Amino acid sequence: MKIAPLLRPRAGMTIVDACAAPGGKTLHLAVLSDDQAEIFAVEVHAHRAKMIQEQKERLGMHSVQVVHADFLTFEKVCDAVLLDAPCSGLGSIARKPDIKWTVEKKDLDDLAALQTKMLNHAADLLRPGGTLVYSVCTLTRAEGDAQVEKILAKRADLELDWIADDELTFSQRTPAGGVRMLPHRDRGDGFFVARFRKKI
Question: Which is catalytic among the residues 18, 42, 137, 163?
Answer without folding.
Answer: 137
